[in-house]
Each structure stands twice: as structure tokens, then as C-alpha cells.
Design a protein that fits this description.
The chain is of the alpha/beta class. The protein contains 9 helices and 5 strands, in the order βαααααβαββαβαα. Strands 3-2-1-4-5 form a 5-stranded parallel sheet, with helices on both faces. It is globular, with a radius of gyration of 17 Å.
């Protein structure tokens, strides 16, 4: 990665296990090995290509009810999201290799507790103020910034506004077969490098 590049790293699904915490509010265990747990995981994987995944794809609740319950949980819901297994190593390796170039970039929900909880979560686990809270990530797009995100709609808009993008794989795909988190972090960093090279070459061709 060129030193002039900035890397914007999404939080939920990349470093924080939002899915597990959200499901637990409704009494489900994302990693339960029963038929129920397996069914939920399969529905999540089946719908990962949708531009706007909705909770009713894997829970028997409406989107409105889903967010109502999370809002009711307050900022503690966001502050206490579990780390995904590779999160610490991913952040450390990226910052070691590309100092002053890596930032968290995360979208809060429509409730103010979300912004507070997300900021507190980042401070709690990474002790850094290198983060941006925004529902308009595309405003940060430029040819020297790459967005690492797991939401196709956000990536598409970021790219349309002149930024580079990398689609982070679904966390359940990465966690399959009990793979070593260190290997996962290394593979994803290499994939990000390749996305930058591809994006720069595409830009030069145009």
C-alpha cells in the first residue's frame, strides 16, 4: 500500500461481532450447533450478497422491531460487542505496516446511544481516536482511500464517488473450519493490498 493511501476499516462484521450480540437479544445463539443455530447461520450466508441485509431474513421479527430491541438495550449493547477472533491482530498488523494510514469507519444506527457506544467500544479495545462515525462513508471517497466493508451497497456508493473498495468476506465464512485468526488476518491484509493494486490499475486505464 502506498503511504499516501488511507484505509477505512468498517467495524461490525470485521472487528466486532454484531451478529452474535443482536441474535442474543432475541434468545438465539449464533454459534449454537443445534438445528436452529445451523439454520440461522445458513440463512445469513444465503443472504450475504444482498445490498441491504434485513434482520427478518434470519429472525422472525420485523426490521422495526429488531432495531427497537437493540435501541432499548442502550449504549451498552454497542460497548459490549465481542471482538471477532482476528480483530486485534488485524488492527496491529495494518498499523505496523502502514502507520498513520488506518482508521475505523463505522455507521451508527439512528439512535444516539449507538454513536456513543461505538466510540467507547473502539477506545475500550484499541485505545485510539483514529475513527470516523458516519452513515455517509462515500463522503470520504477519493482515489487515495480504500473502504474495507462487508456491505455491498456502501461499497458501491464509495466506488461511484471515486474511492477504492474491498469487500470483506462474511464473518461466518472466515470462521469456518476453526481457522487460525492470525492466518485469516494475514490473508485479508494481502487481499486488501491486491484490491488497491487492482483499483489503481483500473483508474490508470480510465
Amino acid at each position: 500500500m502506498e503511504h499516501s493511501m488511507k484505509l477505512m476499516l468498517d467495524v461490525d462484521g470485521i472487528s466486532a461481532d454484531f451478529l452474535a450480540s443482536a441474535l442474543s437479544i432475541f434468545g438465539y445463539d449464533l454459534y449454537d450447533q443445534s438445528e436452529v443455530g445451523q439454520g440461522i447461520r445458513q440463512r445469513l450466508l444465503d443472504n450475504q450478497k444482498n445490498t441491504e441485509p434485513s434482520p427478518d431474513m434470519y429472525l422472525f421479527v420485523s426490521k422495526k422491531q429488531f432495531w427497537k430491541e437493540i435501541d432499548r438495550a442502550g449504549h451498552e449493547f454497542w460497548t459490549n460487542l465481542p471482538l471477532l477472533p482476528w480483530a486485534k491482530e488485524l488492527w496491529a498488523k495494518l498499523n505496523e505496516e502502514y502507520p498513520e494510514s488506518v482508521y475505523f469507519c463505522t455507521s451508527p444506527s439512528n439512535h444516539p446511544d449507538s454513536s456513543y457506544g461505538k466510540a467507547k467500544w473502539i477506545w475500550k479495545h484499541f485505545n485510539t481516536n483514529k475513527f470516523v462515525l458516519t452513515n455517509h462513508k462515500y463522503l470520504l471517497a477519493n482515489p487515495n482511500t480504500i473502504l474495507v466493508d462487508d456491505t455491498p451497497k456502501k461499497l458501491k456508493k464509495f466506488e461511484e464517488h471515486g474511492g477504492l473498495v474491498y469487500k470483506w468476506p462474511h464473518q461466518l465464512v472466515l470462521m469456518g473450519h476453526d481457522r487460525d485468526p492470525s492466518i485469516i488476518a494475514g490473508e485479508q491484509i494481502e487481499a486488501i493490498r491486491q484490491a488497491i493494486v487492482w483499483g489503481k490499475n483500473k483508474e490508470n486505464d480510465e
